[in-house]
Design goal:
Elements lengths: L1 H43 L2 E6 L15 H12 L3 E6 L2 H10 L4 E2 L12 E3 L4 E9 L18 E5 L6 H4 L5 E5 L2 H9 L5 E5 H11 L8 E2 L5 E5 L2 E3 L5 H17 L2 H8 L4
Parallel strand pairs: 1-2, 1-3, 6-7, 6-8
Antiparallel strand pairs: 4-11, 5-8, 5-9, 5-10
Helix pairs in contact: 2-7, 2-8
Length: 270
């Protein structure tokens, strides 16, 4: 009788161990498959879609390879295994949708402290001077402070961060537009007294679209500010830190093998 009970207990233990072994094996298989699926999913989704406005000659849908900035960014991502696409939309739309995570980030943006709430910034790729331009020879070519520009109608772009001082200067008359090219056109037509814009962008656009007005363009000194241009990645993307880290590595690689310099030279930036 005792032996039978012991045998029954042993059998029950063996059954329990067997069932536990099956359960453990099942859990391990599921965990392993989930691990493979997650890694496969990330590998398949190593793709970023960036949004920006057309901002020639830095980047734009009509430029060769969409401009030097686009080509450099795509090449840097390519070196670390990503496919990068760029969508050209009005800047305000690009900024807002990237904040929400509907785009993975922005192509070519200035740094501002308030944007760090929404974006993780890459290392800088280039820099640009923001300059006041006029066509009115009655406006002095030099100014000592923003107070000197009171009373003039200044064209700006909606959603742009120029500088803290300028953005907060309520005493200035600012007439906003959707795109920088709109302001350049309005300046050429005499509808604005001044525009504040990228030095390269204004000179490039006037030479391309308004060649008869090149000699009438007046650049005010000094530049308001020199800004670095970055690729900010939206913090709504759960892998934003990894994406920025990978992009920075890609940029380092193409700088070390001279690809960066070759792209700049190809696009006329030395």
């Amino acid at each position: 009788m005792i032996n039978n009970n012991i045998n029954n207990i042993n059998n029950n233990i063996r059954n329990i161990i067997s069932q536990l072994s099956i359960l453990v094996a099942f859990i391990l298989i599921i965990t392993f498959n989930l691990f493979l699926f997650d890694n496969q999913l990330f590998a398949e989704n190593k793709k970023v879609v960036l949004a920006t406005d057309c901002w020639e000659p830095h980047y734009g849908s009509d430029l060769e390879n969409e401009g030097y900035f686009t080509e450099i960014t795509k090449e840097a991502f390519k070196r670390v295994g990503y496919n990068c696409e760029v969508s050209f939309v009005p800047w305000k739309r690009a900024l807002e949708l990237a904040k929400r995570g509907q785009y993975d980030g922005l192509l070519g943006a200035f740094y501002s402290k308030e944007r760090t709430e929404f974006f993780e910034y890459s290392t800088p790729i280039y820099e640009e001077k923001l300059v006041f331009f006029s066509k009115n020879d009655k406006i002095k070519k030099e100014y000592s402070s923003l107070q000197d520009l009171k009373g003039y109608i200044i064209g700006t772009v909606r959603g742009y961060h120029y500088s803290d001082e300028f953005n907060n200067a309520k005493y200035l008359i600012k007439d906003t537009a959707t795109r920088a090219s709109d302001n350049i056109r309005r300046l050429m037509l005499g509808r604005l007294d001044l525009i504040l814009a990228s030095q390269f962008v204004v000179i490039h656009t006037v030479r391309k679209k308004y060649p008869d007005h090149v000699n009438t363009l007046i650049k005010l000194d000094p530049p308001l500010v020199t800004h670095k241009l970055y690729v900010p990645i939206s913090k709504k993307n759960r892998k934003h830190k990894q994406i920025v880290q990978d992009l920075n590595l890609g940029l380092k690689i193409i700088k070390e093998d001279c690809t960066f310099d070759n792209i700049m030279k190809k696009h006329g930036f030395h």
